[in-house]
Amino acid sequence: SHHATVKRHTSDLHESYDFIIAGGGTAGLTVADRLSEAFPKKTILVVEYGEVEYARGGFDPPDIIFGGASSARGPGVFTFQSLPNPEVRNKTAFVFAGKTVGGSSAVNGMYFDRPSRFDHDAWAEAGSPEFDTSEHKWNWEGIFPYFKKSVTFTEPSIGSVQKYGYTSDISAYGGSTPIFSSFPPFLWADNVIARNAWKEMGIREAKECAGGDKEGLCWIPLSQYPVTARRSHAGLGHYESVSFRPNYHILVKHQVVKIMYPDGTFSGSLLVELRSLVDDQFSNLTAKAEVILAAGAFHTPTILYRSGIGAASVLKDAGIPLVLDLPGVGANLQDHSGPSWSWSYTKPGNFSPMPSDMLNTIFAAKATAAFNETPASGPYTLSMANSAIYVSLPNMTADYTHIVDIIRAMATNGSSSAYLPTDYNAEPSLIAGYKRQLSVLAAFLANPEAPSTEVPFATGTSARIFLLHPLSRGTVRLDVNDHLAQPIVDYRLGSNPADFDLHVAHLKFLRRMLDTPTMRLYGAVETGPGAHVQHDAALREYIKDSMTLSFMHPCCTAAMLPRELGGVVGPDLRVHGLERVRIVDVSVLPFLVSAHTSSTAYAVGEKAADIIIRSWLK
Ligand SMILES: Cc1cc2nc3c(=O)[nH]c(=O)nc-3n(C[C@H](O)[C@H](O)[C@H](O)COP(=O)(O)OP(=O)(O)OC[C@H]3O[C@@H](n4cnc5c(N)ncnc54)[C@H](O)[C@@H]3O)c2cc1C
């Protein structure tokens, strides 16, 4: 009873709320917390598909006990398969998204990096000149204060700094929000091998990568509490830890079905249709001020479609009457993906501790005990990885202009539309928007300070090579046979062939790491793709074979772009053409950023809250 009130039945609710937020995830709960604090007399309802659950960390011991109960089972997730990707051996991606109070921040890998300043400058560039007159700026200067506000960063202890060499710069932080960012008090012993090898390749060692400049070798904090090393997520920071507010309600186990306009105008109050996931009953609630869609990049488009908002052709196929023709809904899907790369050591050093030690029952038992102590310590405090390199294309290959020129040509001649879904051809705005994006991304990729690839690492002899700025575009569509079911996700990976040029450039550069003095000392030998695979054509085939289709950063399916460029929202996050509906989640990114996406979801939530509060104060 000390925080927002959880409701389980619509009969427990008010008949109407000022703000109704669809989705109690990373960005949605950030907004709910801020609005309920700023407007004690206005009522805020979050409708969440999942439940309030304990969200274990990505690498917590299997039998961790929390609140007297075993929490071995993770919190709720949506899981389904994407359509096959013809350019990548017809593979289907395993789609995974948070379905719990806290959303994907409660199930993610806890890797908590931030984008590059150039990502946000490019975001603003994509909406220029149309959005230049808006008071809301989404360039780095316009969003950096919200990255700072969104988290509380704890500097690494002196012991960790001395032991591991952690560096940080507190000036990149400064918030006091109870979403925590901190360094684990543990590293696997071989982390230093990769770090040394990257430095020998000339990769700049960055003191801090959260302040906008992140081309180089970075230490990455985790989204975890500093002392207990337990997962920090939106459900804890923006719901559990909020002191009691009678105006802040969360309705769990309910699906937002659609939005309706009872007055027949887009400026009047709104009705929100809900479906109980317990008894399948449907009901309506009134939103007096606004509806905020925050259901994530896969599900926000489904609510819009069911409301009759989307491309007329897509709605016709689904048999839904058109309310507003907005072709950008569910278009422009992007995600991070990439091949794997591996090696072995013919002269392995004697490193300890190593992940293989966890197979030793005594070591593993000690690790669990250390994690359950206060302060927590040991291997379980390190989630997936907390180191990475981020490298720009010009710093990888002198031939980068060749790739940039290909992308520039696509942006100006007619060829780019060939790479888009065929139903885009009926929508000139989507083609124009894609060309604008390609032109902005070409300039981005030519910038020696703007990362094109990321390789996160913690330990071991394999790595995943992220394509940070894919050029291929996919779709999220409604299942025409069951509008309430999971959407049909078509990544269309590699549908723009220049993505493979980028992958090949990344891999060719990175594999040179095995020829550094440190790697030679341990007799490093490449096992995947293997030294015999040298030609670009063969590398392409290897990349297709070893590709991870999704690193689970889907975004951009309701992009902040002008309407005539296939955009769905403007800089104030209002859906084009609708006065009282905004979108506040990672759907609004025009393109992917050089970071895992949770920090951006929080920053979007913080900035959105500020925009909404200011607009209602007026
Ligand atoms: C497995 C996994 C690992 C990841 N690893 C990392 C990582 O290590 N680092 C990182 O930075 N990012 C990571 N990400 C990505 C990051 O967590 C997400 O991009 C970010 O949290 C998305 O925030 P959001 O607010 O857009 O959506 P979400 O946080 O996903 O919130 C959407 C919410 O809406 C709810 N919802 C959906 N449909 C409806 C509906 N119709 N009605 C009511 N509620 C609905 C969902 O249940 C969910 O709670 C990962 C994601 C996943 C899934």
Describe the protein in words.
The chain is of the alpha/beta class and 618 residues long. Among the domains are: 5-53 and 237-333 and 555-590 and 602-617, 3-Layer(bba) Sandwich (FAD/NAD(P)-binding domain); 394-447 and 471-546, no CATH class. 27% of the residues lie in helices and 18% in strands. Strands 1, 2, 3, 11, 12, 13, 14 and 25 form an 8-stranded mixed sheet that branches. It has a 4-stranded antiparallel sheet with strand order 10-18-19-21, covered by helices on one side. The chain starts with a strand and ends with a helix. Flavin-adenine dinucleotide is lined by residues 22-28, 47-50, 96-100, 103-105, 107-112, 255-256, 294-296, 299, 303, 552-553, 585-586, 596-599, 601.
Primary descriptors:
618 residues, alpha/beta, 4-stranded antiparallel beta sheet, 25 strands, 27% helix, binds flavin-adenine dinucleotide
Distance between the termini: 33 Å
Percentage of residues in helical conformation: 25-40%
Question: How many strands?
Answer: 25
Which regions have little confidence, pLDDT < 50, spanning 5+ residues?
Answer: none
Number of alpha- plus pi-helical segments: 15
Characterize the largest beta sheet: strand count, sense, and whether it forms a barrel.
8 strands, mixed
Small-molecule binders here are:
flavin-adenine dinucleotide
Q: Please, what is the CATH homologous superfamily of the domain at 5-53 and 237-333 and 555-590 and 602-617?
A: FAD/NAD(P)-binding domain
Kindly estimate the percentage of residues that lie in beta strands according to DSSP: 15-25%
